[in-house]
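Dear Dr. H.,

I hope your travels went smoothly. While you were away I took the liberty of generating a structure for the chain from your last submission, since the lab meeting agenda had it listed for discussion. I wanted you to have the full record in hand beforehand rather than looking at slides cold. The sequence, exactly as received, is reproduced here:
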Amino acid sequence: MPNTSSFTLTPIHQSIRYYLSMSNLNCISRRLNSEIETTFIPELSLEGSACSAQETQYEWSNEIYFHNGRFLQKQEIHTAFYKNHESSPEHFIGCPHQNLTVHTPHFGIRDGMCEAEAWVRSIPPRCSSHPMQKWNNFQGPYTHITSCTICHSDTECYIQLNGAFLDIRYTCYRDLGAGLDPNDPKWRALLTGTGVNHRPQYEFEVLKRVWLTARQLERRGLEEVTHHTPNGVFHVRSQERDEA
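The corresponding predicted structure, in token form, is as follows:
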């Protein structure tokens, strides 16, 4: 469904050729049975792969669900930095208010083991005085989770050394609204960035709802990561009882 008009949501990475518009949602919403509470929307879901000019490989997927009168989106991309391979930084966009950049890592040997070190820049930053963080695989896998306080959008990033390459997975979870009105506050915030703070910074309510809906629909590729946040440990499966 390529559609590059200004009324489509920006994909989470430049390699993804998927553009979702309000007209797509509106068309589906008119066709849905009013008695349907939760369903997978195959017409708006797609997966694919891409290769950059530097021969960097990307695998991505986009899934749309309908749950209790709202459209939910799970968009994910996998890529990797390879040792002795020329590559550029990877930039990911969760919504108009949050993004994350993984800079080209340095590979080496430490105590006879492979080592990778990379700078990670996030907006908003984990620490207001340190927008960039240097990560090393000897610290363990890198995990990052963010909830936008304006948009209904939560993101996860997971980085780990896997042999001779640095594996990156970035996932975005969104509540797109009812799909009936382009002026829906949820849609407008995602599309234009306009809106006001209305969500707690570390709530992750959207991530929980989208992930658990995908699990209810028996969708594949659901990863589970434990995150340490200022509000304590967050693990999505632990929230299942609260959402039931």
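Two observations you may find useful: DSSP finds four helices and 14 strands in the chain. The helical segments are 22-31, 185-192, 205-216, 240-243.

With kind regards,
E. W.
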